[in-house]
Amino acid sequence: MLVPLFGLSQEKDSLNSPLISVNDSKIFESINIGFDLRTEFQGYTFRGGGQDYDGVQFENGFTALRISGKLHEKVDFNFRNRFNSGSEVQSLDRLSNDIQLAYVKLNANEKLDFYIGKMFGFYGGYEYEFSPLYILEYNDIYSNALAFVTGAGLSYQAFDNHQFRFQVLNSRTLLYEDLYGDVVAEDIEEPIWPVNLVVNWRGSFFDGKFETHYSASRSNEVKNQGTYFFTLGHKYQNNNFKLMYDFQYSFEEIDTKGIVNSLLAENEIAENVLYVENWMRAEYQFSDKFQGLLTLMTSTAYDNFNTTRDHIRTSYGAIPTLYYKPFKKMDLRLFAAYIGRYYDFTAYATQNYDVGSYNRNEVRIGVLAPLNLL
Known about the structure:
16-stranded antiparallel barrel; mainly beta; 4 helices; Porin; globular; disordered N terminus
């Protein structure tokens, strides 16, 4: 008597309609599935600072699967898995670093949206806003920053040309003991909540020809110590020309980027570190098939900023790039680029940390393809 009743109960429990049904073809009009690929052949040299090295190789610079869409008139989702990234599950947020995006956006009304899940921080500027697919090399802060973390946020379209956003995020993906281990410092303690607060403003002026993208954030990395991060982003665009400029200022009571910290002895951590950066990118569309880019950047690092303000190094970068798009209906681009970086360590850094200035020169030829499968 119980067997058929139990079977019927199981059958009824399984009748909940799935969000996506193969019988409803309309749902696929709201789902986007893509495969992003950047593969390149590279040749590079290192010179100076005790380095004398040449190399040639093929590299998968970026490979990712992305799925996004609208499940309901007020519910969107976004997911991206980068295959050439770390796959170890992080001890704090319980996701691996290869899952960059996994969040839901809820539309409260025409002006207010809520976000929850693993997402990009609402940091200002335009360098960070590009997908890693389109950036051959980030400046020093974003090369070492934790870009994708778990949390919640909201965006409010206060006026037609002005949007404000706010986020509460984890400041790291690893637990204290996994990240810092046996670091020797009296003031390094685990906080109750390693949290990061981000505020953001986006403005548009002169019929969209000039835009601003500013942000300020305060993170609590360890107890009573963290990072103050400010970004001022600007963009001018007119016809076939775009020019973007970002200024970034990151004062870190605990060095979260690791650039200064990498010079110290094992089980030590740099404190009161300052990074100041400039990033500029110009784009010009020569024709339907050819586009030229030029990226210029500098990054300056200081140690013991509250006291002696020791200048450690300044790095410089230049990345001229040429895109060629052979197909009209497919966004597949062939590219050739030169990446030049120079790392200039000061006399103070040379005397105290036994380091020397060096440069890296690199040529890349490859394919960039954001392939939309559905």
